[in-house]
Write a structure and sequence with these properties.
CATH superfamily of the largest domain: HUPs
Strand content: 5-15%
Distance between the termini: 90 Å
CATH topology of the largest domain: Rossmann fold
Number of helices: 19
Largest sheet: 3 strands, antiparallel
Bound molecules: glutamic acid
CATH class of the largest domain: Alpha Beta
CATH architecture of the largest domain: 3-Layer(aba) Sandwich
Number of domains: 4
Length: about 500
């Protein structure tokens, strides 16, 4: 009977999500959705040196933000729980006892020092570290004696001593391993806690997992997993090992080389859609080579056979490209809401809470204390939408819209070879021309019409008017165009800035 489609994402709760794990969970999700199955979140917390406070909550929060939904997990009831390995110790004991009773595993009493000595000797002889199997065939009486004496032990699996182990990966086909290269793997440690290898196989079986999709750093464990399935007489799931994600230099992605934590990308203002789209293409591409894809499109196009086995390269510029694309395709309203926390972080608006926002739609300018309404912020954001790469850039890009007075050198107002007197004169002229536009028809078009007519009538050069005007309005070398900025600033705000600039020049 064909198995139901059931996949799992099985992270250790480290407190943050690695970008490689994001890809793993996404592909698990895509397979589940495209084949119509269930996705399980399983917390593998038995191998951890120390507990990280709140790690599981953080993990659930970031996965939720990404829009990856689970069907079963520690936060959702399900018939295969508990879904946290530290709550399943009794289960692992039962199954390791079963292997002991069947003679497929044994208690190993070799203490740490003996193993350390052995390892050092092996290292000196350039041999791979390997347990010498001293306890593999201890007589029953000896075992009883040691147990009575309260000696500590680990449980190891009796691995085959010779021959080949042939395993099957869905992407790589058959892979051969030599039994002689495999250690008698530890299943249960001396503190009664299972190893990752043991717990994950037992859980995958009991949770009826149909496909295991994980990073290829687990390829070397693959024969050990299969031997465990054989020892139990269980049918293994299908295995898919994803290639590594490398940095541009060809090395491993590491925390030191910049961000690898999805939480850091979130804090920088990357959108979940962009991150998902970006990681989806790290090792997979749809048959039609479409690049920008919504989750629905990815689900529709996803086929396991289109996964690749050559390493993927992490290219941050590509991620920026996707982020810019998704930013441009938001409605201004959506984008503005997304930008609010970043404006608060940049010290432009006062800290706000979503709760207050829903009631008031009004904000306070952190510097001036004046009220700013949502419509104003929306107009500002609309001007930046085209250029914005990440939400965290919004503060610097738009600060000038929120400050009444700002510092800049008078030289900024000069276009090419103009002298100061001419700049001052042109700003005065602009001021007079702008003053004549009725406040009720203050739009970028009417501002443009009025100014262009004025420049033409004066026989002036466009740059000699519009550059000083734009610089006066923004205080910046680069910004959106002067008519757009003037419209958003409003008549009074624009006139003030032009006046301040003219007054700067003697
Ligand atoms: N707990 C393992 C990890 O942290 C899971 C590996 C697997 O998917 O089997 O990566």
């Amino acid at each position: 009977m064909p198995k139901n489609i059931r996949l799992r994402f099985a992270p250790s709760p480290t407190g943050w999500l690695h970008i490689g794990s994001l890809r793993t969970v996404l592909f698990n999700y895509l397979i589940t959705k495209s084949l119509g199955g269930a996705l399980i979140l399983r917390i593998e917390d038995t191998d951890q040196k120390r507990e990280v406070a709140g790690a599981v909550e953080k993990l659930i929060d970031i996965l939720d933000w990404l829009g990856i939904k689970f069907d079963e997990g520690p936060h959702i009831a399900g018939e295969f729980g508990p879904y946290t390995q530290s709550q399943r110790l009794e289960i692992y004991k039962k199954y390791s006892d079963e292997l002991l009773a069947a003679g497929k595993a044994y208690r190993c009493f070799c203490a740490g020092e003996r193993l350390d000595d052995m390892r050092q000797r092996q290292q000196a002889q350039k041999l791979p570290p390997r347990y010498d199997r001293t306890c593999r065939d201890l007589p029953e009486t000896e075992i009883e004696r040691k147990l009575d004496a309260g000696e500590k032990f680990v449980i190891r699996q009796k691995m085959p001593l010779e021959g080949e182990i042939i395993v099957h990966d869905e992407l790589r086909g058959q892979i051969k391993f030599m039994a002689a290269d495999l250690d008698d793997q530890v299943l249960i440690k001396s503190n009664g806690i299972p190893t990752y290898q043991f717990a994950s196989v037992v859980d995958d079986h009991l949770m009826q997992i149909s496909h295991v999709l994980r990073g290829d750093e687990w390829l070397s464990s693959f024969p050990k997993n299969i031997l465990l399935y054989q020892a139990f007489g269980w049918e293994p799931p299908k295995f898919i090992h994803l290639p590594l994600i490398l940095n541009k230099g060809g090395g491993k992605l590491s925390k030191r080389q910049g961000d690898v934590a999805v939480e850091d990308f979130r804090a920088k203002g990357y959108l979940p859609e962009a991150l998902l789209n970006f990681v989806a293409l790290q090792g997979w591409h749809p048959k039609d080579d479409q690049e920008v894809m919504t989750m629905e499109e990815m689900i529709e196009k996803f086929r396991i056979e289109n996964l690749g086995i050559s390493p993927a390269v992490f290219d941050i510029e590509k991620l920026d490209y996707f982020n810019g694309w998704y930013i441009r395709h938001k409605t201004v309203e959506e984008l503005t809401k997304l930008c609010l926390p970043f404006l608060a972080e940049a010290g432009i608006i006062e800290e706000f809470s979503i709760f207050n926002f829903q009631f008031s739609m009004k904000f306070k300018n952190k510097k001036t204390g004046k009220e700013i309404n949502f419509e104003y912020i929306k107009k500002v954001i609309a001007l930046e939408q085209e250029r914005l790469k990440k939400l965290s850039d919004i503060g610097e890009a738009t600060r000038f819209f929120f400050e009444d007075k700002f510092e800049y050198e008078p030289e900024l107002l000069i276009w090419k070879k103009m002298d100061m007197a001419q700049v001052k004169n042109n700003l005065e002229e602009i001021h007079r021309a702008l003053e004549k536009i009725p406040a009720g028809s203050w739009t970028n078009d009417s501002i443009e019409d009025a100014l262009m007519a004025h420049i033409q009538a004066r026989g002036g050069k466009v740059g000699e008017y519009l550059w000083p005007m734009r610089a006066a309005l923004t205080g910046r070398q680069a910004s959106p165009g002067p008519f757009d900025v003037a419209e958003v600033l409003g008549k009074e705000g624009s006139l003030n800035r032009v006046r301040l600039a003219a007054d700067k020049l003697e």
